[in-house]
Amino acid sequence: MKDLFSHAISASLEDNLQIINKCFANCSDLKVIPWHYGPDLKYEASSVYFNTLTKSDPTNYFKDVLQNLVPHELGPTLDVTVEDVISYFEKNGVSSPLLELMDNIGQAIKGILDGKVVLFFTGWQKAVAYYAFDVEQRQTSEPISEPTVQGPHVSFIESLERNVGVIRSLLKSTNLKFEFFTSGKQVQRTLSYGYLDGVVKPETLNQFKQRIASIDQEEILDVSYLEEWIGDSLYSPFPQVRYTERPDTAITALLDGKIIAMVNGSPSILICPGNFMEFFTNSEDYYYRTIFSSLIRMIRVAAFIIALLLPSTYIALSNFHSELIPTVLLLAILNTREGIPFPAMVEALIMEFFFELLREAGIRLPRPIGSAVSIVGALVIGQAAIQSQIASPVMVIVVALTGIASFALPQYNMAIALRILRFPLMILAATFGGLGIMVGFILIYLHLATLRSLGEPYLDSLAPLDLKRVRDSIFLLPRRLLLHSPRNRHLYKKTSGRK
Hints:
This protein is an alpha+beta fold. The chain has helices at 2-5, 13-23, 59-69, 82-92, 105-113, 160-170, 202-212, 227-230, 247-255, 290-319, 327-336, 344-364, 367-387, 393-407, 412-432, 434-450, 479-482, 489-494; strands at residues 30-37, 43-50, 99-102, 116-121, 127-131, 176-183, 189-196, 242-244, 259-263, 269-272, 452-453, 456-457.
């Protein structure tokens, strides 16, 4: 079958159609439409296409296209010959961006799979193909995973060309570069990556190109498949790339020297390299006043700490360090735990398990009933667990606060990392108390300090500590001061000499 793709198009129409039918055997949606032209309709031609990929009735359409290209009308009364058609195309080529000439069967087969109508003529060793792709696509809508109150309400869709066009329409710069390539033997999915020339670090761009150079044979179905090739540490729970479906977030990343990657059929865009503090930022931060945006970011950092340490801290305090709890609060906790048959560790594991189960059920259920089932299920199970003395009210509050804190993080993949790390910390707290939490936290910090993304340190904006580099991390300074930041030096050079 591979040898067929290298065959040149034959002057025999029957031979070409035989190869096409052999390649697309048992494909009921393949249409081979024979038609005739010239005096007395004595010359044969055929159009080959998938009716599931192209316009509903392209027969008249390609005749109209040929009528525009060849200065003759196709019909039995005019002397249009094969030589006329060959002479016109050989001398003038094609005058429409939707058309192209093909020399071998491999090009014709790929064109048919791409939603093109391929025209074969008797006596001509070339084929004419025109783009007639017509598959229903989702219209631009408000972002689902990144909704905002203020700011643009536009999201990317599953069309790669449309997404690139949206970015180019908002970032009109000659330095904006997009490179395209195809990956996979079966899916042959089109991929693209973009960057801002002169802003992205050359060594980072070279690292990125080297890592994706080996995926041309891989079946890439979604942009998240690229993370495994781009990331430095495959087994790290922390994400090393970001995802977005908002054009303003993608443009901000490009201006910050990031690289974006897209896959045709995926509405999300991958942003790399990843930086730890960038997972706490949101595009909406720049649409509010500085004080409010800084407060929100500090709340997200607090939510990160709560989601990571709250269950283990409760276990350590209740089992090992009860003297650190105020007496009144300790008596209240002891009263609620009276009659509970499980230790705090087992109690926490049970409640965390049911909370994760409800979270997954709420995602998988149909949207109209998913939220209702998750809320009602949490209330019913929590109340039933308290009344049956399987869990204490304090533990239910701790698990609920942990879940709410994880939802406060803008990036979902960072919340997944916390869900993974929470359980080892709980085991360390149940075994060694506060010492176990300290050891676990130090190990996490050491891992973050050694982690890299495309060769860049993961904690680049925090360590080594540089006050000028944390202006847009935990705190957000006014925009005119951010222009002095090293990460935006390329913007500062283009502005007036404001100091």
